[in-house]
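Ticket #345: bound-state structure for flavin mononucleotide.
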Amino acid sequence: MRILTAGESHGRGLVAIIEGMPAGLKIKPDFINAQLKRRQMGFGRGKRMQIENDSAQILSGVKAGITLGSPIALLIENKDCSIETLHKVLSPRPGHADLAGFMKYGFSDIRDVLERASARSTAATVACGALSKIFLLEFCIRIVSMVVSIGGEVSPKAKIEKIKEAVEKKDTVGGVFEIRATGVPVGLGSYVQPDRRLDARIAAAIMSIPGVKGVEIGLGFGYGQRLGSEVHDPIYYEKGKGIVRPTNNAGGIEGGISNGQDIVVRACMKPIATLLSPLNSINILSRKAAKASVERSDICAVESAGVVAEASIAVVLADAFLEKFGSDSVADIKAGFAHYLKRIK
Ligand SMILES: Cc1cc2nc3c(=O)[nH]c(=O)nc-3n(C[C@H](O)[C@H](O)[C@H](O)COP(=O)(O)O)c2cc1C
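RESOLUTION: The complex was predicted; output attached.
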């Protein structure tokens, strides 16, 4: 599967082209829009989310609600299309692409960086992920996410308090989220080349989400603190049940291949870089001291980042599934999958 997205934060809209989705898949636009809505929710989101009520239009690749196997083009229109008239941005925000992007591309306005660097683009990721989820659901593969901690706090009440505290202090806060994929069969990904490893592909996809700074699979960094006998998941065989693994420290992937257990991924998102009480910066033209620019912004987007991560993992899993079981028609893939399940039983 190949995916390309385009679109600026305050441009006309976001566009995605997905090539490689097989023919014969029933597409439910309501499902795609529900995923887009989930991305916009979560405690700590800013005013922009109240303006945008995202919905995806399918422009190609689908007829009578069924995929044709041809590229699927999606459009999410921006309600707030103001890119031509928005004010210039001249003070780069620490923690954003502002400074490096401005220097790299030779712009005279930092807005020309932030319009594309903005996490608005993650709406396109979520739409592509929704299509991938629809495909995966045909094979009973489901992906969910949850917020593990906010600013180091883990209880539901303390997490909310932490966000409220950040709002009060005109600050921002990050956190950790977890994504879990259930029903993933043994055999997605491979050890034969580094870029075919499922763990590497998942890590790259999650690390591509703006603001994500750490990714771990299964026990992750916890592996570094224990003995091998304490962490590797023993293998048993039980009549009637088949192969049984009582623990899942591997997070569902061994040797770059899914092992049939749930895939469990955790990621850390840094605090939002736009601060209402801005950090020290400079005026990029005069180089004189200035406070960093302030844009309309979220205070905490960890829950939404989890929704984006579900989509990112869905794309990786759908891609790996298509590699393993064929890629043209859902009916053929189902036949190949049934044959495979019988063989490995
Ligand atoms: C769903 C989501 C919403 C975000 N909302 C904002 C925001 O409102 N303001 C902001 O400054 N950063 C926001 N971010 C984070 C920035 O996009 C990110 O910190 C920035 O791109 C720099 O991070 P990087 O160094 O990982 O690229 C958001 C990220 C995600 C995933």
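RESOLUTION NOTES: Residues 46, 95-97, 117, 119, 122, 209-211, 272-274, 297-298, 301, 304-305, 308 surround flavin mononucleotide (CB under 6 Å).
TICKET STATUS: resolved
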